[in-house]
Protein 1
Amino acid sequence: MNVQRISALVKMELKKIIREPAYLFMMLLFPLVLTLSFGLGFATMPSAVPGKTQFEFMVPGLFGYACIFIIMSVAQAFSDDREQGLLKRINVTPTTSGEFMGSNLITYTSLSVLQVAIVAISAFLMGYRAQGGVAGLILAFLFVMILSLCSVGLGLITATIAKSSEAATGISFIFILPQMFFGTFIPINETTRPIAMFLPSYYVTDAITMIFNGVALTDLNIWFDLIVVLVISLVIVIVGIGLFKRYGKA
Amino acid sequence: MHAKIKKSRATDGPEDVYDPEHGKAIIIKNLVKKFEDVTAVNDLSFEVKEGQIFGLLGPNGAGKTTTINMMIGLLKPTSGNIYVGGYNVKKSLKSIKKFIGVCPQDAAIYKFLTGRENIELFGNLHAMDKKELKQRVDELLKAVTFTEASKRKAKGYSGGMLRQINLLMALVNNPYIVFLDEPTVGMDPRARRKTWDFIGALKEQNKTVILTTHYIEEAEALSDTVAIIDYGELIAMGSPKELMEKYESKNLEKVFMKITGRRIMEGA
Ligand SMILES: Nc1ncnc2c1ncn2[C@@H]1O[C@H](COP(=O)(O)OP(=O)(O)O)[C@@H](O)[C@H]1O
Ligand SMILES: [Mg+2]
């Protein structure tokens, strides 16, 4: 691992986003608009949970929502670079796969966490108050980080399957939609539960809901969720890196 | 941290790894590459002397890019062996990557970075010392008089400008062996001449250059040795002068015609 290489790659990836207005718009405005729309739309609507508005019920799901979309950004970025011959070009320098993947995991996980931070701040401004204190918030962001890592892994898998960046956008929805519908704020029923069980976002939303509802942080259900989502994410990241190393560069 | 990078370079830089055998920068033995239905490279063998410009000349589809990609480890040969700078590509690609520079046929450039940033990025990927890197980039940009435009994003560059940056990116790490795959395709005649001068000057810096081209004048003007390939096979090799004498031809185009009955640029 060479720090100079990793930091050069991270800087390059960040410039890609900052200098591309469309990317930057997606990254910053999307979580803001998302939260504000849901806040305005559902703040006064009562939810199935007594004493909670629909918006309050939805906020933990919005956290997951924000990190799911990074799948598409990663898949597009990788397919674009591959089409331009840049992955091959990096491949003939002494850069190792570990350094290359590491820098991408760092960049996109950070961006995803930043998006969730925007969701959190906008929700706060809309009057949402989470329980669980600072420790709860930190634990919630640990879940967010793991889910983001997982999304980067799914983005890599998408980039490997897709032969072009247009295809990458389409294929990424295979991973985005189920996680969005069955793993965030849409209530789970008996039919959708077997699907949700395989979705990392389901466990993250479940845990963040408990944390923000004031369930004790020592509650084993939270830690069970953490272990499950950690294992799923590790497997996906390892599979993603492996597939991409083998088939994703050419 | 700087001291650490310096130290790692002192034991791990290109100069500590490059170790050609008996002045041979590259040795290729019985190289074959088959894709599903085409044999792109068919039993190719040749050697490249250190400090030479070695031209691989052949029509489009002759197998030039495929050969280069096997030399730099991007493609696995179906059979045969390649040694670059004394190392077997199959076993020691990691060492080879430290002392080579590659200019791909299709310009591979980050469009949202400036020309300078693109070159710098690849210097950083070679873990070059920051100060040395800045000097090197200045020097390269000056050599092709690209100083002003290098501060603009590559998105707005013309095809010829992209090709120039593409070439400079391959040289930032001061490589011992440089692979240039059709470096002047799409340049106007003036830019092409300028680039020829630039490539010719690499020889004075003791670099070995592997240059593929389907431009006859380019191969004639630059190469110490030319290998003419057609359908993945070596059909003639020697200095341009030797080849013209041997085949009693005025230029390499006529040499190619005498051997194959076709023109190099046909259908290109
Ligand atoms: N990835 C590939 N799959 C199938 N055929 C290929 C592939 N790459 C190159 N070829 C074929 O191999 C031959 C040589 O191609 P190439 O090395 O690109 O030629 P050149 O660089 O001399 O123009 C051509 O017939 C080309 O169509
Ligand atoms: Mg070619």
Protein 2
Amino acid sequence: MNMTCDQFRDLLIDHVEGELIVDVQELFEFHRTRCPNCGAYLESYHYTIRITRKLPGPPLPAEVEARLRESLRPHLGGGD
Amino acid sequence: MTDPLPPPADADDPGPLPDAGSPVTPEVVFRDYAPRIYHIARRMLGNDADAEDVTQDVLLQVIRKLDTFRGDSQLSTWLHRVTVNAALAYRQKRSNRQRRETTEAADEVLEMASAAGPVKRWAVGPDEPVLAAEQAAVIEKAIGELPVPFRDVYVLADVEGLPSAEIAGILGLSVPAVKSRLHRARMRMRDSLAPHFEGGIAT
Ligand SMILES: [Zn+2]
């Protein structure tokens, strides 16, 4: 049974989580190797996830930290 | 999943978080969690001042209940929940005040490139991506443009790295609903990033 491009896209999330059952995974791979559009789509979908994961959690801006420490001062003492 | 770089060593740094069972002090909570709370709230609310208010509220709640936590992982889960709830409540308050917030319809339609059109291959290698500053700005902007229900799930799943089950618990959704939103958010993000990463047409 062939898989359509729409069906392929619907399965992407389960594919990247490794949650497709074996039979479906085979159909998925079959479609991927024969459909350049879906092959390129899968790569870019996966890349989107991986590069988003690289977003830095930048440090707290210094002035934000200073204001927060000031307002929380009664609670922060006596730690460490 | 990769860990963030460790913070630089510092003479005043009391070291990593204590293991489960050790007491976590308010100062440790502030140092280790305030940035995460702030950035989740900032991405969810799209506003620095609101994120600061939420961060203060959440830290206060966490510090007050600190002695009820037995370890870091339990604290981390609870903290995500409190942060998201505080951000959602803040957003609700703000929309009541301004009456101009976008719809929160759970199954809002997301415009997506059709599966029928040609897909350009991205000019990226197979290696782990390296994030340049201009790419980070492009991604942050695309996240900010996601409709709210999709943005929440995307931030928690793909920025923060929380599992779908945990997000489902936090947002009061089923796991399939979380995955459906996440999938659509990712496709929309892919479309937004595509012009910045595309190379030639796939052949
Ligand atoms: Zn296809």
Protein 3
Amino acid sequence: MSDVVKLETAPRDPRFPSTNQTMTCWVRYLEWKRCQSKDGEDSDECKKLRRWAYAMCPIDWVERWEEQQQDGTFPGPKFE
Amino acid sequence: MKFFFFSFINYKVLNDAARPWQIGFQDPATPIMEGIVNLHHDIIFFLIIIIIFVSWILFRTLFLFNSKTNPVAYNFSHGTFIELLWTLTPSLVLIGIAVPSFALLYSIDEIIDPAITIKAVGRQWYWSYEYSDYVNEENEFLAFHSYILPEEDLELGQFRLLEVDNRIIIPVNTHIRIIVTGADVIHSWAVPSLGVKCDAIPGRLNQISFFIKREGIYYGQCSEICGVNHGFMPIVIEAVSFDDYIRWVQNKILD
Ligand SMILES: [Cu+2]
């Protein structure tokens, strides 16, 4: 039961020390996407990066980017 | 229930919500708010001394050195010593204030590796919270909206315009990260007892962190004018013990 709730979240990122964390969210999301294209969806590393991306980004934002990835209108880099 | 004379001494009711005609602080629940209150009190102490000193000089000058008591005017216009004195003293006072003020400012910005991240999204006119560290069986995140309780639904003892239907539950003695953003216009997420106030700006994510030292219910309000219902989107934080928090999360992701 208690293994369902783990007290773990995205760590403090020394690259982004300020109050403005917009870039943390964006970079964490891209790191997750890069991992996905490299190691595949189900690797432990990618699952961790997915958690960290969702910890730093509003769910709406990630969902919008995922839609854009599908539609081919995503403004960020593409990892093949 | 037995009532002992003087037993009221044991009661200490802490003030975690605004009260009518309040001009002081609410009682602090985080080290940061304790720092803010202490800095304020320290500065006000010296401020009162300075006000008394300046008023005393001003009144002496006005009453003792007017045209009646001194019909012949002095003809000097400089005094190097006194000018040095009244330039250097205020600058030393300002430096004396700057040192603890900057120490506090930088300690507010300090981010310690948090255990929980909560996102607060300001909307017209309610707050949504996302606990995306936790998912249920269907891979859905723990997230909910937090609306004001209308006046007719209030129970005895609840606060008008401050109570919400879904409170944020947070464990005590844990480092918390809050990511604040807006979904439509600028709002501001503020809880006085925790010493936090952070603008919720669309397209930008702002991070604040705090460490609650005692269990309790903390009230705050949207603090950036955001439209007609700006005054009706309060914030309620319930700080509970760690075990209660885990239990709450489990119940929340099970249903
Ligand atoms: Cu607002």
Protein 4
Amino acid sequence: MYAITAVVVAAVIVTADWATLQRVFLDPEIAAESFPGIITIAAKNTLIFTVLGFTGGLVLGLFLALMRLSSITPYRWFAATYVEVFRGIPAVVTLLLVGFVLPIALDVRIPGTYGPGSVGLAIVAAAYMAETIRGGIEAVPRGQVEASRSLGMSGPQTTFWIVIPQAFRIMLPPLTNELVLLLKDTALVALVLGSTAATVDIYKFARNEVADTFNGTPLVVAAFVYLLITLPLTYLARWLERRGNQSR
Amino acid sequence: MTAAGPDPDVPAIRIERLHKSFGTLEVLRGIDFQVDAGEVVCVIGPSGSGKSTLLRCVNLLEVPTAGRVLIEGVDITDPECDADAVRTQIGMVFQHFNLFPHLDVLGNLTIAQRRVLKRPKDEAGTVAAEVLARVGLTDKIKEYPARLSGGQQQRVAIARALAMHPDMMLFDEATSALDPELVGEVLDVMRRLASEGMTMMVVTHEMEFARRVADRIVFMDEGVVVEEGPPARVLDDPREERTRTFLSAVAQH
Ligand SMILES: Nc1ncnc2c1ncn2[C@@H]1O[C@H](COP(=O)(O)OP(=O)(O)O)[C@@H](O)[C@H]1O
Ligand SMILES: [Mg+2]
């Protein structure tokens, strides 16, 4: 494995046309033109889509997880089907469904400039989070529920005050990973549903710059901005995981 | 159940022809017995004889298959009965403490007071301080359960139950999970509770505790009550062969 990698790297270094590469992908003047817009507009919009999609996905995913654990069979079937369907189809297709099929088929138009994109992302995220949340809830020992019920707390009170807070701690590392996946999926929104000057995200912003300058440098800048956000989150997830393992 | 508290003439716990099965396994096979208000009853018997199941039927953590359970005269096996309301009258202490690890001691002691009894925050806090003092852990109010010893955790669990001002307490092998040197502090708290007049149903393997604290001992085996009576009678002069076998097995340790 390492040998192959080393050969490939060596081949690239020897054969690459470094001057051309730098001109097309690392032109400092063109890179400078991406600023400050890529931060003040594009990164802001990427974060808005991420936060809206994540929050929506968390709420929907929680309901799906509770349905999946319910004693009522139709609830379980519904949740299981939802999870399989939306994990099984590409996010692009889901966004198309929300943005174009839903308005035509059911006359449902999601309002707001961020609306359709966020809802599409939330629908996808919920499918993944539902499974994470279910795993977290099932990991809370039965004795916790029994202690809570024996104090007179009702089933819903027990779920809300005792089970979910503990499940949440267990879920925090995988949820952070899902946040990173979702953040990267935000690039699909503009691609599928289009965007305006106000809602342009990092990826679309870079594509526009590429079209204007006939140069690939803005894409490299975009990649950097994505990493600037995702790397700390990835490390946060890893840290939370390590801390979780220690307290057990 | 009235606000006036327990009526001394009505048994605190009355169990009639109680049966409980898990699938095809019949764990309780017709239990009859009662605990009077202010009485301390210790339930002893071999592992797997159904002691925990019996205790858990008393506060409906397990739903009986047949028979009746009356708490202060109210039939809690009646499907109309509000199980949550009944449970606020019955404190329960578990073998593994089951403190809420995401809440500090104060949170553990106040959550049900606030959510179930709707006590305001400061009143719940006052009650918490009071019951914590009764188990001798006033200085631990801000600690999280993970930072307490097993004995301290179990004392907090007892305080958590007491904070609801229950009419009776159930103990399911409250000291079985503790290191030997921590057993005493928990038994002391239980002994004090008993002397204050608390109605208690105690599943235990601590024969010395049962002898000195119980008003009555019940010996269970294979889902039935084999024999019951005053501690000295059951422990020193058992009438049933099964009781003798069990007691001599326990004495080996
Ligand atoms: N939830 C359950 N499902 C199936 N079997 C159970 C369950 N709870 C207890 N049992 C069985 O019932 C029997 C009595 O258990 P238990 O009441 O815990 O006995 P004890 O407390 O006297 O040791 C055991 O054989 C146990 O395996
Ligand atoms: Mg038991």
